[in-house]
Amino acid sequence: MMNMTETNQLHIMFFPLMAKGHMLPIMDMAKLLAARGVKTTIVTTPLSALVFFSKTTQSSKNRSINIAIKVLNFPTEEAGLPRGFESLDLITSHETQMKFITAINMLQQPLKQIFEESRPNALIADMFFLLSWLQILAM
């Protein structure tokens, strides 16, 4: 059961584009907000959670900064990509770029479910230009 402080705490959810240049600034923003008492959650893929967020969240916990990580399985194979192809940094052709965007779009329903369960006050994502459904979800 949540206490009154937890239910009134500002909660910001982050959904960064799966690329190094996007993950690191999102992590920095989440740490800054969490250090000021804002509940922060980063939604990401298994590879990104392991590569970008596991060490940072552990060191943040050591400083009493709580950043939650929610992992969405990235539908690589369903989109025609090789297993483990979870980063924009791996794209080498227009074809793989289109498949990657298809895979991101397949995250709509799982992200909506996390959003509805977590009920954050705000969603910060850097993919609005790619995914119009993110704008609808954030409203």
From TrEMBL:
Q: Does the keyword Glycoprotein apply?
A: no
Name the keywords, alphabetized: Glycosyltransferase, Transferase
- Stored Gene3D superfamilies: Glycogen Phosphorylase B
Q: Which GO terms describe its molecular function?
A: UDP-glucosyltransferase activity
User: What residue stretch is flagged as signal peptide?
Assistant: none
Q: Which residues form a coiled coil?
A: none
What does the sequence similarity comment in the record state about its family? Belongs to the UDP-glycosyltransferase family.
State the name under which the record lists this protein.
UDP-glycosyltransferase
Species, as recorded: Camellia sinensis var. sinensis (China tea)
